[in-house]
TrEMBL record:
InterPro entries: MetalloPept_cat_dom_sf, Peptidase_Metallo. This is Peptidase metallopeptidase domain-containing protein. GO terms for biological process: proteolysis. SUPFAM superfamilies: Metalloproteases ('zincins'), catalytic domain. It comes from Knoellia sinensis KCTC 19936. GO terms for molecular function: metallopeptidase activity; zinc ion binding.
Length: 273
């Protein structure tokens, strides 16, 4: 069996740092000397962000100990690998339901961009607009709406917007986001977004906004052959190694994290054209 070690790498820092999730029990048996960590050992080694959420799979979040425990169990005792041929995949939650917005919600995804970005505030605004435009161009049902009047009070506690975009100082990731079912909705952005080589700020924010729409990392699909995360997803299109949701370092075929036609087809399949 292929080793199903979830590489919980941080977007952008994955080349230099990689914190691994636990191997599945049968995979551990195939790797002499490896012992599956207890949940406590796994939790102790998992990065807890400034807002208390746990970072898994590089740039995804688990809000609580309970959620982290479910994530741990899905890794140690994974469901059968999906073999559907039908790039983009949507996260599934309890009961196998798609983790997605309703049509009315996805048409009004309001956000603020914190003025705490200082001199970079306008640059973040532009990167967000560019990243949002990638998905809005794929489905007319999707509409991200920046609310500048809320930028001065841009935190997760601001109920005047759907989510906040805030600065963070960390070596764990370049940026990270949330899924529709997440209750603490924010996108956190490190300064390293401005020095990420071929990964432009627009494409990085496009990747993160993909998560906010419910899309998972493409490289968790078996066709990738590496960087498996879990099987809590449903395929929307054929596998796409160049997907904006596919880490290049996980056998991806695109070095710049750009959006593909297949990504657009997946977004349209989930939310309509």
């Amino acid at each position: 069996m292929v080793i199903t070690m979830a590489v919980a790498v941080a977007l952008g820092t994955a080349m230099s740092t990689a914190a691994a999730a636990p191997l599945a029990a049968d995979d551990a048996a195939a790797n002499p000397g490896y012992t599956v960590p207890t949940f406590q050992e796994f939790a102790d080694s998992t990065f807890q962000d400034t807002d208390g959420q746990f970072i898994v799979n590089g740039d995804e979040v688990e809000e609580s100990w309970g959620g982290l425990n479910q994530f741990y169990n899905s890794m140690v005792n994974p469901k059968p690998v999906k073999t559907d041929d039908t790039s983009l995949i949507v996260k599934t939650i309890k009961g196998g339901k798609d983790d997605r917005w309703s049509q009315s919600q996805v048409g009004n995804l309001t956000y603020c961009v914190s003025t705490a970005f200082g001199a970079r505030h306008d640059d973040v605004v532009a990167a967000m607009a560019g990243g949002a435009g990638l998905w809005e161009g794929a489905s007319s049902a999707i509409d991200y709406v920046h609310v500048p009047s809320q930028d001065g009070n841009c935190t997760t506690s601001n109920r005047s917007v759907t989510f906040s975009v805030e600065p963070v100082q960390t070596s764990q990731y370049i940026a990270r986001a949330f899924f529709p079912s997440t209750r603490k909705r924010n996108i956190l952005v490190d300064d390293s977004i401005w020095s990420s080589g071929s990964w432009t700020p627009t494409n990085i924010m496009g990747h993160e906004l993909g998560h906010t729409l419910g899309f998972r990392h493409e490289h968790t699909r078996p066709e990738s052959g590496t960087c498996f995360e879990d099987n809590n997803w449903r395929p929307l299109t054929a596998y796409d190694s160049a997907s904006i949701m596919h880490y290049p370092q996980c056998n991806g075929s695109s070095s710049n994290l750009s959006m593909t036609q297949t990504d657009g087809q997946g977004a349209a399949a989930l939310y309509g054209q």
